[in-house]
Write a structure and sequence with these properties.
This protein has one domain: HUPs (Rossmann fold, 3-Layer(aba) Sandwich), CATH 3.40.50. It is 54% helix and 7% strand. The protein has 13 helices and four strands. It has helices spanning 6-23, 37-47, 64-80, 92-101, 104-107, 110-131, 142-148, 169-178, 183-187, 201-205, 209-217, 227-242, 244-247; strands at 28-32, 52-57, 84-88, 134-136. Strand 1, helix 2 and strand 2 form a beta-alpha-beta unit. The longest helix has 22 residues, at 110-131. The chain is globular, with a radius of gyration of 19 Å.
Length: 257
């Protein structure tokens, strides 16, 4: 298995971001900051381009730990880069009004409402981003985007560019250390922050990111696997199949001539 040169990876992504923004005639980038390592890494890489970067905090009944980590990262990045600014848009009241406007049985569906939070944030990112001439930078990694589809369609999956989507989660952690992301974010348990408790990604998926990375790359005979390995492989396979609608282009009904 190859080992990445994280200094070169950093330079490659920063160059790629700069080139893409130049070709798109964009002034810079906007990133939703969650308090997680993916958004912290993405925003740092965007900041390294020297272009305009807007860090957007969009709490919706956020846990204090997530909110505090997001603010710690925002403060740290603004102190390091003069091209970085931040906006806090509390969407709790907007989300509450949305809940009042739809049927009660929909509100009681926790997953539907969790995904609605993500889609509200996407709309906010695009409104502020467009007004400032900025591209929406996605924060998804390779396991989430192309392995298990652990993201919200037209929510955090609705972006202009995906600078870290070719990196496994463990590689995200390593690159985050390379670019000096704050330690509290690197060591925090990964969470999508879409629920009002402290459930982690592993709690929702049933497997850790290192386990999912193993399953994503495993091509061998399953008869010699341990019971846990078989369980993880089944989790990965089930999610990968169920979420192909996120990973593939929208199906188009082609009319025959």
């Amino acid at each position: 298995m190859y080992i990445l040169n994280y200094s070169k990876v950093k330079d490659h992504i920063v160059d790629w971001l700069s080139s893409y923004a130049n070709n798109a005639f964009a002034k810079g980038f906007i990133i939703g900051i969650s308090g997680g390592v993916d958004s912290a890494l993405t925003s740092t890489l965007c900041a390294l381009t020297g272009k305009k970067v807007i860090l957007l905090s969009m709490p919706i009944r956020q846990t204090k730990a997530e909110f505090d980590r997001a603010n710690e990262h925002i403060k740290n990045l603004k102190s390091r880069f003069c091209n970085v600014s931040s906006i806090e848009t509390n969407l709790t009241e907007t989300f509450t009004q949305f809940e009042k406007s739809i049927p009660s049985d929909v509100v009681e569906n926790h997953l539907a409402m969790a995904n609605s939070r993500s889609r509200l944030r996407m709309m906010t990112l695009y409104a502020i981003g467009q007004a400032n001439g900025c591209l929406v930078a996605g924060t998804g990694n390779k396991v989430e985007d192309f392995g298990v589809g652990f993201y919200t369609k037209y929510g955090d999956g609705g972006v202009d560019i995906s600078p870290i989507a070719d990196l496994m989660k463990t590689e995200v952690w390593n690159l985050a250390k390379e670019v000096d992301v704050v330690e509290s974010i690197i060591t925090a348990k990964p969470t999508d922050g879409l629920f009002e408790d402290e459930r982690s990604d592993e709690d929702q998926i049933g497997a850790s990111y290192p386990e999912l990375e193993w399953a994503m790359e495993y091509k061998g005979d399953t008869s010699n696997l341990s019971e846990r390995q078989k369980e993880v492989l089944n989790i990965y396979t089930k999610l990968n199949r169920a979420n192909q609608h996120k990973m593939n282009p929208i199906p188009v009904c082609v009319i025959p001539k």
